[in-house]
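ok posting inputs for the alpha-L-arabinofuranose job
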Amino acid sequence: MKLHFLSLLLLCSLRSFAAAPDSVYIFTYAIPQDTRKGLHIAYSVDGQTWTAIGQDQSFVSSDFGTWGREKQMIRPSVILDGDTWYAVWQLNNNTNQFATTLTKKLSVWKPQDYPYVSTSEVLSPVLSKADGQFVVTYKTKDGKTWQVKSRDFKTWTGAREVNDYRSNEVKAKVNGTEYDGCITRAPWTLIENLINRADATTLRNRQHGERMADDGNRFRDLKTVEANLSLRYSDAKAISPNLVGIFFEDISYAADGGLYAELLQNRDFEYNRLDRGEWNAQSFWHLDGDGTLWDIETVNPIHPNNKHYAVLNTTNVGAALVNDGHDGIVVRKGEKYNLTIFLKKLDGAGKVKVSIVNGSDVLAETTLSGAVDWKQCKAVLTAKADCDNARLAITPQQAGRIAVDFVSLFPQKTFKNRQNGLRPDLAQLLADMHPKFIRFPGGCVSHGQGLENMYRWIYTVGPLWERKQISNIWNYHQSMGLGFYEYFQFCEDIGAEPLPVLPAGVPCQNSSRGGHGQQGGLPFKGEDFKVKVTEDLPTMEEYLQELLNLIEWANGDPTTSKWAKMRADAGHPKPFNLKYLGVGNEDLISNVFAERFAFLNRGIKAKYPDIQVVGTVGPFFEGSDYEYGWQLARQENVDIVDEHYYVDPGWYIHNQDFYDKYDRNGTKVYLGEWASRNNKWENALVEALHLTNLERNADVVVMSSYAPLFCKDGHSNWNPDLIYFNNTGARPTPGYYVQKAFGVNNGVEYIPSDLTVRGNQDVRLRVNASIVKAENGDLIIKLVNLLPTSVNISADFGNLNGYDTQNAVWSTMTGKPGDGVVTPVEKTKAVETKMNTSMEPYSFTVIRIKKK
Ligand code: AHR
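and the output
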């Protein structure tokens, strides 16, 4: 308390007197008890009494390794060279890497890099500069001391053993606790700036923490609010017609067991422990009955990409191999189901009965026979009764050994009756949103866990049993049944632009597999992999070609392009008309990333200048990935960057001008992932508010998509989501209806308006309007009221000649902030040029006035 008071005094005196020093000492340190907390900074005028900047504030924390405990900053060693601070630190006790970063302003530290060294581990690295070179001296567990050097702080020499280890750490007491750290000097202006930022952070955190639960107090005396709205048609501007789309990622069982209509799980015995520790090729299958044994074999599989198959060895006929489906199998009376199964006689026994069963009831059945070589057998099963929890049973009909693989049970009724298609109810919910684009397949699924787990589009097309399946970063399996062909087809089916997002040649920076972090990315020709990889991976040059091949596959002419011919052979001779290609997802903007992204972006634009490349600027609306991601985007003249933020409701209320400040002529924005951290009506309301602000800025923000989209009950990787579902139905959230309202009522032209709301700043921030003209000329007015009271609007809609003013469609959503179910109520009501209307408390209204 005393120290805090003293610090305050010192701060006040430094801030208010002209005699503030030119520079002060700064002490940079980490908290040894919690190394995840990153780098702290304290300052001192005399080098004796130290004041921490901010409350427990970290200015940079380690981004190495998996989320949580892995991200450690151990013993940061910081030096000042010219006007730049350079830092290195230890990452853990067993990695042959250390971390580097640098800054000029102390507030934003340059993206981190993790150079590899030629010894087994790096302990207590000390940074110094000698003869124009950066020197890192460190220890290994055997007590030896090593040195690596760099001229540019990027490329480091091999490790050389040395005798001399001198730490640059000193001890200093901050807030009563003694820490080890480094002392340098900094201009007072920089420190003052840091202090102001720390103060601003405190205020900002308070604003972002504002919740509607406190409205009773915040708006204690508030009565009905009066407002005026008038439209400024003469200032209309063109906006993106693609503002609202969807982001589909296979997270929380969104694909297998979800949108992808396959009813069986682990249909081709490819599940394994990389998917989930306790899984193997037999998971979700079991033997029911006696007289048969079963095992997994891999010799002469149906395809090298589909190595595992089951062998049933029957002595007494009667037992069945049973698949549990995804939490059971749902069938409906009279519906038809396509059965596919590969069978191979191993010693003469080739006949099996395949049945859909509900306990001992048989709902449908067929008998099939294998051959001496793998034989694809097909049948159509018609269910005799409804069942939500059926199983598929394969019963050998003869004694002997038979091999079984790729067993698929697929409803004929899919969305648009596509083969290998999608669950109609879930797909329809998406179609109903009128999304202008679909981003797929991730998210984190794109960059994957470690180099070998990166999503490679090429392995997701072609016959289902030839697709290369990989584990899902969300801790389950990707059958790839829903692959690029199916994604593109779905986009076409619902009139949405396809937006594939593929890795930038680097896996997730949080990878835990095969070494940590980015693992150095794919090497350029002639370079080595930084970590051991177990299969052939492409060089960056080959990988660029893989991305170019995708464009050819999607858009090319089948008569001249082998890639386009693959598409045509799969059933789609016409081009898919791909316009966008995402490269990278939320990557750490390190040198490793920047080099690879620039290479891919340039390569794509050189061959296909019309393809819009979508880059990435990290997972937050600020910070080093955001700053340096944007810097890289500007430098490389990137068409669009993908911003992400998952923030509290208060953020949306207090950052309504976020995009008003963006450059109108540079790189455009795709707000690819965003949400407000719960799915109550309060959240949907602030999302509606944000969307009105996005519409105003839709000359810069050209696309947006809520994330994540789907979550299957009992399989959640992430909360909140837009749509929850189980095997028989779905529960769209209030946020779903808000997104849908903006998708259905999208504009091509924005009509600015003057909205005057009488009340204080808190009141004014909670009412908004957005007016757009749709492509067919309809006028659409969206009104959001986040207040607990009604708002009376005196509106001047201007000249409505040419509109069907008698039959405007008013769609209103309203509820209590904590409500979990809120749906729109629609009515037809006249509008007039000048009219009074009332916005209900906590409401979102869309008025659509049809063009005659
Ligand atoms: O939307 C869920 C995840 O959030 C995405 O996979 C990833 O990009 C982000 O971190």
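notes: Residues 249, 251, 442-444, 585-586, 619, 673, 707-708, 718 surround alpha-L-arabinofuranose (CB under 6 Å). The radius of gyration is 30 Å.
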